[in-house]
Structure formats: structure tokens, C-alpha cells
Design a protein that fits this description.
Strand order of the largest sheet: 11-12-10-13-14-9-15
Bound molecules: adenosine-5'-diphosphate, magnesium ion
CATH architecture of the largest domain: 3-Layer(aba) Sandwich
Distance between the termini: 14 Å
EC number: 5.6.2.4
GO molecular function, one term: DNA binding
CATH topology of the largest domain: Rossmann fold
Shape: globular
Number of helices: 26
Domain Helicase ATP-binding: 285-447
InterPro entries: ATP-dep_DNA_helicase_RecG, DEAD/DEAH_box_helicase_dom, Helicase_ATP-bd, Helicase_C-like, NA-bd_OB-fold, P-loop_NTPase, RecG/Mfd, RecG_dom3_C
Strand content: 15-25%
Pfam families: DEAD, Helicase_C, RecG_dom3_C, RecG_wedge
CATH class of the largest domain: Alpha Beta
CATH superfamily of the largest domain: P-loop containing nucleotide triphosphate hydrolases
Number of strands: 21
Number of domains: 5
Length: 701
């Protein structure tokens, strides 16, 4: 059989004429034999099972029933005219109904002969029926070799309309496999298949379409998913390796005075084990001569700032400058005051550059940056303006990366002869295996430990009718000197309504908590930046006790004295957002609380989100639930990595296979990094194909 057999145009398959070939091309992207073979079923119908009529329930889906037709009649008239057969078994009666081809069926149906009827069950009144059933005489049914499970292939509206039915596709598939069975080239090495108990390519391909047993089907799907994930991992690991060898970075092998002095004399607390490990990883990275591009994941409050400072000091010790970029003015300001405080007495110079820095001060910053008197620059997007020129930027630290695009990061690179090392910090945790497979171009460090002495934030779910009790609680907390956040949803589509809710909420809070005893701040996205900052600062400085806000406060704001986070219409927030918001409290030594307010009607999905929040404060656990609820589609970067093109595997549900496939890829590369051993020829072929940026499955066939 010639190797390119699978690339035979689909028109050549017996039974597929030019018309249908065209449909298959346009609707399902099936151009060749190989493409058709790689059209995988969405699901299977178990035809090993027969239902009794008295076992049917309204949503029985597709069922198979053994019985006899005892009566045929025409019912209705005009458009609703239909042929109705009464179908009976020993447990009851139901109806089989035809709207089309009535004459044909009236003439051909046999009374009192055993039939097997198959189809989707519906119920009208007390009567079950199947419209246009697949109907087969029991004798024929028995004589035909049955495969246990019938595949159901993806379809489209157009295909259904043009009568390219599932039965037709199954027929084509049968024809195809009678011609090409055994044509698939094994892609995975023998030892790997043995070690991970993976069945062969040909067996898997045949059984995924025509499973002989449920067991074999399971093994086939596993094998094919493994293969898919394995090659994606191979590609990511190789890309990462290429980046490390090709993109040079400054060598920071000098751990000098500034780092050591700070570590010995200015560190305000002992680093946690996780912080130490991460700093070590960063140091190792920046010392190699390769370019660092590292993602630092750490839950809110896990202490990323100190890691950023230590990273900056490593650059300084090697004669370079550092910058820290934050997504908002408020955050940049907080970083600036936090970092300045940490570095007090060290002689290291730090400046803040944001949109609101006045021209004169700005000019000074520009000058000091260019002549190298300024060590660390902290700021917002203002940092990547063209006028900002570093003398020698050694490391760029980017906080809360999901607000920064790749393009913006690339802009930072242009300021140097070599790209500065990049450390991206995020408080949006992603399960580790998933993160590793999504961000092929990033290395990952995780702070998975909170500083000691933190009190767990108590989280409760309350309904709107409990509002008075909640107000009472707020009063008590304020009496203890604490501050309160009250957050309202802001969703673009209903922006106007949201602002009305926010305003109403604010009005009622002001009524409940009147001047002069209480002072309430309000912050939202429609305010001018300076008004926003003014209000925010009043709250930060403790001048107001309650902050009513939209999600603008979501990211990073640090007010250790705030102990209560009330989230209004909590059912409208996503899990990661709820988690971020909750992270605004629990930053001081006091017991903190998060109250999730909702109305009475909750969807199952909302309920799961709320329950999860109440049950755990572990950001990684929350991220996992979130992924299961939303799927990975929303995660940043997934489009770039090609992961979304997965045919069979589901990056979330098949996470365990992913981890194993990654391990297999790592092992293979450890043995044979150039993929040149003869036993890896199959792997090599797929990889060189992938490098030409063709779809994975085009080749794997
Ligand atoms: P995030 O990861 O959210 O940016 P921060 O860096 O703002 O967290 O740290 C949160 C708080 O925890 C800060 O007040 C910081 O001073 C404190 N902190 C960080 N690391 C430690 C530690 N190892 N021991 C005690 N407190 C720490
Ligand atoms: Mg932070």
C-alpha cells in the first residue's frame, strides 16, 4: 500500500460522488481519506441493550426496542397527515410515526413480525413514540454483524439538510476502512507503548470507529488522546528548548552587595519556603546566559512583591536597572510605596512613573533613567512609551499579566541590545500541568504557601433578605475599627443597569450609615482617574470606613485594615473574579470575612461557584473548579498555543492523561533530544510535520 494512500482525495471513495465530496469538504473539512478517518465520533449509541416499552422515560434519548407492529393507520390531514403504527411488546404499546414517505412504509411494513425499532423517544400525552425510526426485521438484524456501539459523528445543519446522515457517514467509514485498514503508521515508539499500555495505532483507529467491545473502545480513545497530547507536549518542550538556546540573555551570575545587604539587613520577615525556592529558580535562570521568561504564580497575599524586589536587586548587582509594571495607577502607587519602604536605607533609587506624573518630574525621571542614576522604575503603561529610555534595563517585572499583551512586552525588549529578563507575576492560579501545557514559551514558578500567621477568611453565602443582619455585622466591624468593601458587578452588556444598581446600593448604604459617624467612598470606572484615586486614597488612609465600588478594585489593592468583603449579586461573578475580590481582605492580622450576597434564584452553575467559594480559599482548587465549569477557552494564551485545536482530548477533563503524556515527552527528549534514534522515527516524522505548521491530525494519520 503506498504511503500517500491516506492523502487520496475523498471523491475517490466508492459511494461519494462529487456533490457529497464537496459538502464533506466545505462542512467538515474532509478532503482526503486520512481526513475522513480522523473524523472522530462525538459519542456512541449502545446497541447491545434493548429496552422494554414500560422502561421508557420521557428523555430516554436513543433507544432500541424489540416488538411487533400490530396496527397501521393514517392520522391527521393536510400538513399534519402521518402514518402511525402501533408497536407492542409484552410490556406495553407505543407508536411509530412517519411524516415522509408514508406510502412506501404503508406498503412495506409487515404486521405481527418481530422488528427492532431504534430512535429518539418522545412522549405525547401518555403515549410514547418514535418519529422516523430505524426499523429492521429481527431476522435481518440478527444476520448482520453488529458492532456493539454505533458511532455518532459530528454533523452540521447543512449536512442534515442535504441528507448526509450519520448512517451515510458510517457507511462511508465502513467502506473506507475496508480499503485502508492497516494503513496507519505507528507514531509512538514500542517501549513507550509498552510502558504506558497503549494499544497500536491501527487497532485504535479501527476501534474508535467500529468498537467491538466497550473495553477496546476505551483503550482506543485513551491511546489517541495520549498521542494527541504527547505531540503537543513535544512541540511545547522543544519550543521552550529552542528559546533557551537561541535567545540570549544577560548573564547575572553576580550575587553582590545589594542583594546580600538587603537579605541580611533589610528583610522584614523570614521568607517562606516557597519564596526561597522561587528566588533560587529565578537566580538560576538569570545566571545561564539564556533569556528568562518566567511566570510567577502565587495566590493573592502569597508574597510576590518581595520576590520581585529580590529579582530587581539581582539585576542591580550586575550593573543593570529594573522596572516593575502594574496595570493601574493605584497599583503602581502601592508597589512604589511598598518597594520604597522595603528599600529604605539601602541607597537604592526608586521612582514612580504614571500618566499623572507632571512634565517636569517626568523629564527628571527620563534623564536619570538614561544616565543610570535611577535603579528601579515602577509604573503603569507609561513605562513603555517611546520616550522612556533605560540606560540598561536588565529585568522587567510585570504584575498581573492578563492586562498586558505580548505586544506590549515586546516593546520593552526593544529598549536594549539584548532583551531584558522578564518575570510575569500573576495571582490567577492555573493548575500546574495545565499551565505548563498552555504556556510553552514560559517557565513557571509557583508560590504555593502563604506567609505564616494568616487567618483563613471566613466566607458565607447570604440571600438578599438577610441584608439587615449583614448591615448589623458591618456596624459591629466598623465599631472595632475595621473597614468594609462592598462590590457590585459590572458587566459590559448591562453597564447602564449595573451603574444604577451601584448607585442604588450606595444610596441605601449612605442612608444606613449616615454622616457624620460614617463615611462612605464610591469608586467606579466612569469616574475621572484623579477622582478615583482621591476616593481610593481616602479609603486606603482610613478616612472612610466603607468602600462601595465596581470591580475596579479587583486587582492588587492593599488595605490591611479592611476586614469585610461584601460581594453583591455574587452569582454574576466568575469564580476567579470572586477569588480575586476576596483576596482584598485578610491582609492584616484580624479575622476577615467575605459575604456573598445573592438573590434566591440561582442556576446550578452559580450554586457550584458559591459553594466552592464557601468551601475553600485555595486558589488552585478554585481554579480547577473554574476550569471545569468554563472550559479552558477563556484562559489567556490558549489560542496562541494551538491547544484549542484538540480533536479528541479535553485539556481539562483529560488533565491526568496530559500529565502522563508530558512525562513521556520529557523522558523521550532526555534520551534523544534530537529525535534521531531509529526507534523514534515515527515521532520524528510527526514533529517535522508539525514544524511545517500543518494540523496535528493531518499528519498523525
Ligand atoms: P501578593 O502576592 O498578593 O502580591 P504581597 O507581596 O503584597 O502579596 O504580600 C502580602 C503581604 O504579606 C504583605 O503585607 C507582605 O509584607 C507580607 N509577606 C510577604 N511575605 C511574607 C513572609 N515570608 N512572612 C511574612 N509576611 C510576608
Ligand atoms: Mg501583589
Amino acid at each position: 500500500m503506498p504511503l500517500n494512500f491516506l492523502s487520496t482525495p475523498i471523491d475517490y471513495l466508492a459511494g461519494i460522488g462529487p456533490e457529497r465530496a464537496k459538502l464533506l469538504r466545505s462542512e467538515l473539512h474532509i478532503h482526503t481519506y486520512g481526513d475522513l478517518a480522523n473524523l472522530f465520533p462525538n459519542r456512541y449509541i449502545d446497541k447491545t441493550k434493548y429496552y422494554k416499552i414500560n422502561q421508557l422515560v420521557p428523555d430516554s434519548a436513543q433507544v432500541q426496542i424489540l416488538g411487533k407492529i400490530i396496527n397501521i393507520k393514517t392520522a391527521g390531514s393536510g400538513k399534519s397527515e402521518r402514518l402511525v403504527a402501533t408497536f407492542a411488546d409484552e410490556t406495553g404499546r407505543m407508536e411509530l410515526v412517519w411524516f415522509r414517505s408514508q406510502k412506501h412504509f404503508r406498503d412495506s411494513l409487515k404486521i405481527n413480525e418481530p422488528y427492532v425499532a431504534f430512535g429518539k423517544v418522545a412522549r405525547y400525552g401518555s403515549q410514547y413514540n418514535i418519529a422516523h425510526p430505524d426499523l429492521e426485521l429481527l431476522v435481518d438484524h440478527k444476520s448482520r454483524k453488529q458492532s456493539a456501539m454505533t458511532p455518532v459523528y459530528p454533523s452540521t445543519e447543512m449536512l442534515a439538510k442535504r441528507k448526509v446522515t450519520n448512517t451515510y457517514i458510517v457507511k462511508c467509514m465502513r467502506k473506507l476502512f475496508s480499503e485502508i485498514n492497516g494503513a496507519f503508521v505507528e507514531t509512538l515508539p514500542d517501549d513507550m507503548r509498552e510502558h504506558y499500555k497503549l494499544i497500536g495505532k491501527n487497532e485504535a483507529m479501527l476501534n474508535v470507529h467500529f468498537p467491538t467491545t466497550p473495553e477496546l473502545l476505551k483503550h482506543s480513545i485513551y491511546r489517541l488522546k495520549f498521542e494527541e497530547l504527547f505531540f503537543i507536549q513535544m512541540e511545547l518542550l522543544l519550543q521552550n528548548r529552542i528559546r533557551k538556546t537561541k535567545i540570549r540573555g544577560y548573564v547575572f551570575d553576580n550575587v553582590g552587595d545589594k542583594f546580600t545587604d538587603f537579605y541580611k539587613n533589610h528583610l522584614p520577615f523570614e521568607l517562606t519556603g516557597a519564596q526561597k525556592r522561587v528566588v533560587k529558580e529565578i537566580r538560576a535562570d538569570m545566571g545561564t546566559g539564556a533569556h528568562m521568561n518566567r511566570l510567577l504564580q502565587g495566590d493573592v497575599g502569597s508574597g510576590k512583591t518581595i520576590v520581585a524586589v529580590l529579582t530587581a536587586l539581582l539585576a542591580l548587582d550586575n550593573g543593570f536597572q529594573a522596572c516593575i509594571m502594574a496595570p493601574t495607577e493605584i497599583l503602581a502607587q502601592q508597589h512604589y510605596s511598598g518597594v520604597s519602604e522595603l528599600l529604605e536605607g539601602t541607597g537604592i533609587t526608586v521612582s514612580l512613573l504614571t500618566g499623572s506624573v507632571k512634565t517636569k518630574a517626568r523629564r527628571t525621571i527620563h534623564e536619570e533613567l538614561e544616565d543610570g542614576t535611577l535603579d528601579i522604575l515602577i509604573g503603569t503603561h507609561a513605562l513603555i512609551e517611546d520616550k522612556v529610555k533605560f540606560k540598561n534595563l536588565g529585568v522587567a517585572i510585570v504584575d498581573e499579566q492578563h492586562r498586558f499583551g505580548v505586544a506590549q512586552r515586546a516593546k520593552l525588549w526593544k529598549k536594549n541590545e539584548l532583551p531584558p529578563h522578564v518575570l510575569v507575576m500573576t495571582a490567577t492560579p492555573i493548575p500546574r500541568t495545565l499551565a505548563m501545557s498552555l504556556y510553552g514559551d514560559l517557565d513557571i514558578s509557583v508560590i504555593d504557601e502563604l506567609p505564616p500567621g494568616r487567618k483563613e477568611i471566613k466566607t458565607v453565602h447570604r440571600y438578599d433578605k438577610n441584608r439587615l443582619a449583614v448591615f448589623g455585622f458591618i456596624r459591629d466591624e466598623i465599631a472595632l475599627g475595621r473597614q468594609i468593601y462592598m462590590v457590585y458587578p459590572l458587566i459590559e452588556e448591562s453597564e447602564k443597569l449595573d451603574y444604577k444598581d451601584l448607585q442604588d446600593g450606595y444610596d441605601s448604604i449612605v442612608r444606613e450609615f449616615p454622616l457624620p459617624k460614617y463615611k462612605v467612598s464610591i469608586v467606579h470606572g466612569r469616574m475621572k482617574p484623579e477622582d478615583k484615586d482621591y476616593e481610593m486614597n481616602r479609603f486606603v488612609n482610613g478616612e472612610t470606613q466603607i468602600m462601595v465600588a465596581t470591580t475596579v478594585i479587583e486587582v492588587g489593592v492593599n488595605v490591611p485594615n479592611a476586614s469585610v468583603m461584601i460581594i453583591e449579586s455574587a452569582e454574576r461573578f466568575g469564580l476567579s473574579q470572586l477569588h480575586q475580590l476576596r483576596g482584598r481582605v485578610g491582609r492584616g492580622g484580624d479575622q476577615s470575612y467575605c459575604i456573598l450576597m445573592t438573590g434566591h434564584k440561582l442556576s446550578a452553575n452559580s450554586k457550584t461557584r458559591l459553594d466552592t467559594m464557601v468551601a475553600t480559599t485555595d486558589g488552585f482548587k478554585i481554579a480547577e473548579v473554574d476550569l471545569k465549569l468554563r472550559g479552558p477557552g477563556d484562559l489567556m494564551g490558549t489560542q496562541q498555543s494551538g491547544v484549542m485545536d484538540l480533536r479528541l482530548a479535553d485539556i481539562v477533563k483529560d488533565n491526568h492523561i496530559l500529565a502522563i503524556a508530558r512525562e513521556a515527552a520529557q523522558k523521550l527528549l532526555a534520551k534523544d533530544v534530537k529525535i534521531e534514534k531509529p526507534e523514534h522515527a515515527g515521532v520524528k516524522r510527526v514533529m517535522s510535520f508539525l514544524q511545517n505548521k500543518k494540523g496535528l491530525w493531518k499528519y498523525i494519520s
